[in-house]
Amino acid sequence: MISSNEYGSHSWELLVTVDHQHEEVQKEFLLRVTGDLHIGGVMLKLVEQIKISQDWSDYALWWEQKKCWLLKTHWTLDKCGVQADAKLFFTTQHKMLRLRLPNMKTVRLKVSFSSVVFKAVSDICKILNIRRSEELSLLKQSEDALKKKKKKDKNSKEPVTEDILNLCNSPVSSGLSGSPGLYSKTMTPIYDPISGTPASSTITWFSDSPLTDQNCSILAFSHPNCSPETLAEMYQPRTLADKAKLNAGWLDSSRSLMEQGILEDDQLLLRFKYYTFFDLNPKYDAVRINQIYEQARWAILLEEIDCTEEEMLIFAALQAYHVSKLSLSSEAQDFTCESEVDEVEAALSNLEVTLEGGNASNILEDITDIPKLADNLRLVRPRKLSLKAIKPYWFVFKDTSVSYFKNKESAQGEPIEKLNLKGCEVVPDVNVAAKKFAIKLLIPVADGMNEVYLRCENENQYARWMAACLLASKGKTMADSSYHPEVHKILSFLKMKNWTMSPQAVSDPESIDMKPECFISPRYTKKYKSKQLAARILEAHQNVSQMPLVEAKLRFIQAWQSLPEFGLSYYIVRFKGSKKDDVLGVSYNRLIRIDIATGDPITTWRFSNMKQWNVNWEIRQVAIEFDQNVSIAFTCLSADCKIIHEYIGGYIFLSTRSKDQNETLDEDLFHKLTGGQE
After folding, report:
1. What dihedral do alpha carbons 300, 303, 305, 311 form, nearest 10°?
2. Can you say how many angstroms the Cα of residue 16 is from the centroid of all Cα atoms in its chain?
3. Which of the residues 87, 392, 450, 486 could staple to 443 if both were Cys, CB 3.0 to 4.6 A apart?
4. Picking from 151-165, 257-271, 430-444, which range would have the lowest pLDDT averaged per residue?
5. What integer is the mean pLDDT of 648-667?
6. Residue 394 above 50 pLDDT?
């Protein structure tokens, strides 16, 4: 039997643990509460009972069993579902976090553990002065990389001391507004666009930020490379399955750090997650450009992305003799004299990079005339077993299709075959030294991909046809304003690859100090002796020796973007109805199904043809519908399906950005596209 007094009482005891640094004061408190008491009232009762005079404004209640914050202070305990068995933790919302940046430097700063990751990354980027924070996210290091690090620490005789840049006194982390996150035409230039040094007029700007002098140089400049021994000890993915593991640790942007098990002073990686670098501008983006360059550099050195020997030497030349040396000299120089303003503006117009590859406002097109290409090329079909595998034909490129004829005279009639390139994969097959200029086309057909090669005679012909193929694969014609900049970009990359043997270069005294193993991935350092590599890097360097610092980094980024595997994030999946695992490559404009054993693309699906996508959270299956009644469904084996769902939605969100958008990003739209209804 229950007494009338007990029956009429609605109050109960709630245990709250307080996270404070006062050892003499107890940490656990029992509060007598009722279900209709709101969260704000609970916190007020608690602070009155603690009797410690301090600022409690950053504190909030964390519900340990449910792994959630109780941030809606007007909600009652009943509405939150809090009962007597709940264990609540009264703790700070902003905590210290160690972040490993793309340049492998570690910064320690205060981050909101209660905001969703999308907002936390935005605040982090304001501290670091990186615009377009929506392109970045936080990543947990893969287990294989951690195992290799532990093994290295175990084998090392000396204790490993990590050089950490402490930014814990940053204004943003304490809730104040930071630097503007988006481009504005009225913004004062923050950096010199040639050297990347902070502009003299913005020294005062830096004084309110943790990014003063030395800190800025750590983030905006490249520093001497690590030793070959250190590089050898770092984790390098060997297979597609290994590469898939690298992408398994992305945090959920719609949940907070605490909700995802991240603890105070944990280490996470800050990385560019989405490979659509929008509105790169040297006037404002010295840190951003350097961090993108560093992410590209490490991806190439650790063989996370494949490239040819010729391309590897170009990357090495840009790193070894250009960026490294110029960064060291730039830190001691000031290029921001008033007399140089005109030169800076002129250089900027050449350096601005956009998603489509440059500013094409000066190109005048006659829109009534659809351009076309017509030329003699050679066709190669590797899968057809015939004696004459390579045949010359007369090719005509119009709209998004390539037709070929027996000869020029028969071009008025019916073509032998018409290849529709919309949605195809375009892969360069080039060796400048051997005068090989081929375009590999993987054209979607009912049972997979049809493989065709187009062989060109020279650089100019290759650049025109390659640019046309790239645009056609995206559903664009040569009338598009990005065609001519694309041709120019391809030609400039080929020019960098085109070097000749120079006796002066080989005998260059600088080669004595050079360790090519610092700039070349292990696969190629095993093939050649150190002196041979040094000589070849010096040869390649002749074509890039006159570039200013920021342009060298932008060229490196553009060359990285030209690689066939650029921007692909891999996941191991099982397609509905399939009996074996496949790899799914997620890019900014398409999904690619890849054979896990051979690495060959099987099918490509473009986002532009996507009608809808959703997730069945019960069976963790992603389902996507495309035009022409094409639908696919798969479960993800190497990561949570939420990660792929967020990748697709994130890329679609980023495609809605416009350079005229001076307002803040539509965060609600991002969560609507990426969050899912779990």
Report:
1. 50
2. 41
3. 450
4. 151-165
5. 81
6. yes
Paired tokens of 593? 């199904």
DSSP 249-303: TBPPTTSBTGGGT--TT-EEEEEE-S---TTB-TTT-HHHHHHHHHHHHHHHHTT
Residue 150: pLDDT band with limits 50, 70, 90 = low
pLDDT in tens, 548-600: 888 888 989 999 998 989 999 999 999 999 999 999 999 988 999 999 999 98
Whether 519 has a pLDDT exceeding 50, the answer reads yes
Collapsing DSSP to helix, strand or coil, 92 comes out as strand
Strands (E), 609-666: 610-616, 621-626, 630-636
Instruction: Please return the burial class of 342, using the count of CB atoms within 10 Å of its CB with bins 0-12, 13-18 and 19+.
Output: exposed
Pairing state between β 590-594 and 601-606: antiparallel
Of 284, 328, 322, the closest CA to residue 192 belongs to 284
pLDDT score, position 273 = 97
For 58-90, the pLDDT digits (tens) are: 999 999 999 999 999 999 999 999 999 999 999
How does pLDDT run across 24-58, given as a tens digit for each residue?
788 899 999 999 999 999 999 999 998 888 899 99
Q: How far apart are CA 143 and CA 539, in angstroms?
A: 40
Contacts of residue 201, defined as CB under 8 A and 6 or more positions apart, other chains included, come to 188, 189, 336
pLDDT digits (tens, 9 = 90+) for 312-330: 888 888 887 556 565 555 5
Cβ of 507: how many Cβ atoms within 10 Å?
10
Residue 402 belongs to what H/E stretch?
strand 401-405
The answer to whether residue 500 scores a pLDDT higher than 50 is yes
Both tokens of 266, joined, read 């944990």
Distance CA 263, CA 609 (A): 41
Give the chain's end-to-end CA distance (angstroms, integer).
44
Which CA distances in Å does 114 have to 62, 72, 262, 549?
9, 12, 11, 40
Helix, strand, coil share (%) of the chain residues, nearest 5: 35, 25, 40
Measure the CA–CA gap between 133 and 130, rounded to whole angstroms. 7
What pLDDT does residue 101 have? 94
Residue with tokens 């005079």: 53
| pLDDT > 70 fraction of the chain, expressed in percent and rounded | 76
Q: Domains (ranges, CATH) in the chain?
A: 11-92 (3.10.20.90), 372-478 (2.30.29.30), 569-674 (2.30.29.30)
Contact 324, 224 (CB under 8 A): yes
Look at residue 70 in the predicted model and tell me its pLDDT: 96
SS (H, E, C) 298-358: HHHHCCCCCCCHHHHHHHHHHHHHHHHHHHHHHCCCCCCCHHHHHHHHHHHHHHCECCCCC
Copy the structure tokens of residue 33. 């509460």
Q: In this structure, what are the phi and psi dihedrals at residue 353, rounded to the nearest 5 degrees? A: -125, 135
**Helix or strand (DSSP H, E) at 153:** helix 143-155
